[in-house]
Write a structure and sequence with these properties.
mainly alpha; 3-stranded mixed sheet; 3 helices
Length: 105
């Protein structure tokens, strides 16, 4: 049995490849992945501003920002592709039609 962390946001997205549809977290692990994404982005921005404040070269200031952004985006994409339910929507999970985060089978 697979535990899903994300579900489709809209019914129109069902049947589309995982990277072409909108996903929404349905369990705390999904929200944790979103938190990692946002945390990486925020840390990258803070490092960018701090290095600019200290007078560092722009290119050298952008490197940590780009690396943290790539890490955050990559983590979010990998989690949605590997832990996203491609056949059900968030509304189905909220209505109780599907056991929360679990695939029937």
């Amino acid at each position: 049995m697979t535990q899903y962390w994300f579900a489709r946001r809209r019914a129109e997205d069902i049947g589309k490849p995982a990277f072409k549809g909108r996903f929404y977290p349905i369990v705390w692990q999904g929200w944790a992945v979103v938190g990692v994404f946002l945390g990486a982005m925020a840390l990258g921005v803070l490092l960018l501003f701090e290095s600019a404040r200290l007078g560092a070269d722009l290119v050298m200031s952008l490197i940590p920002f780009i690396m943290l952004t790539a890490f955050g985006v990559g983590t979010l994409m990998l989690a949605t592709v590997s832990k996203g339910d491609p056949n059900r929507t968030v509304a189905q999970y909220r209505a109780g039609d599907v056991e929360r985060g679990r695939e029937h089978g």
